[in-house]
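Milestone 3.1: sequence recovery, worked example.
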């Protein structure tokens, strides 16, 4: 079980090239300017063990990875990530911003790979130890635009063979996008959908529109010295 949490957990989701990594950095800086302790992390690869798993998952030479193997590697990465990084930070009162979390597995391995989504949810519930996002920001944009951005980014960063998902067919990425939008519709109390087909600054402002109430709430809690636990 997650135990008593003091921090806020915000996850960022979306297709390849939607700008999650950039927006995590921008929001991290903005929150620190408000005096909020922040831990920015990612999946896969948020731990030392996770970095090894990430290299396996993203390596385009690993064409023989079975869908179930892929899914369970993500689950293993998440189990280590929650235990080693996310849960301790939340207990310390930090805000944790995570570039992908449990919803990515349901979208990519569930909908796009055709794996059993009910079983994926069971495994997710097992590995997250009761840790669920307070807010999930879905950065949405057309697949063609996102992939174009991702390919340009990989070219600039010299990603080498770490582009296994970018090499998937457009139909795969369309399934991922549709899955995310369906998840956002199903869990309206947790998800917000932000149009990512605009400038970085416009996306940043749109995101903070949804985060600011949490900042104000926490500021009030800090002044009063009391925080009500999320039910």
């Amino acid at each position: 079980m997650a135990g008593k949490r003091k921090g806020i957990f915000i996850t960022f989701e979306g297709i390849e090239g939607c700008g999650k990594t950039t927006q995590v950095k921008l929001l991290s800086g903005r929150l620190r300017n408000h005096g909020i302790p922040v831990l920015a992390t990612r999946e896969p690869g948020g731990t030392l063990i996770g970095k090894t798993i990430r290299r396996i998952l993203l390596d385009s030479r690993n064409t023989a990875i079975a869908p179930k193997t892929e899914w369970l590697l993500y689950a293993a990465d998440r189990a280590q990530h929650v235990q080693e990084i996310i849960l301790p930070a939340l207990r310390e009162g930090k805000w944790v911003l995570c570039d992908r979390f449990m919803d990515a597995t349901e979208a990519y391995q569930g909908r796009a790979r055709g794996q059993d989504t009910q079983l994926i949810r069971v495994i997710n519930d097992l590995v997250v130890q009761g840790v669920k996002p307070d807010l999930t920001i879905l950065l949405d944009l057309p697949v063609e635009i996102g992939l174009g951005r991702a390919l340009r980014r990989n070219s600039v960063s010299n990603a080498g063979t770490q582009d296994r998902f970018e090499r998937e067919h457009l139909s795969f990425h369309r399934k991922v996008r549709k899955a995310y939008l369906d998840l956002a519709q199903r869990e309206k109390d947790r998800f917000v959908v932000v149009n990512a087909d605009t400038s970085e600054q416009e996306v940043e402002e749109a995101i903070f529109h949804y985060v600011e109430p949490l900042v104000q709430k926490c500021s009030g809690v800090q002044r009063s010295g009391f925080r009500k636990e999320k039910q």
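The chain is about 55% helix and 10% strand. The helical segments are 20-33, 48-58, 67-91, 102-112, 117-128, 143-157, 170-186, 200-224.
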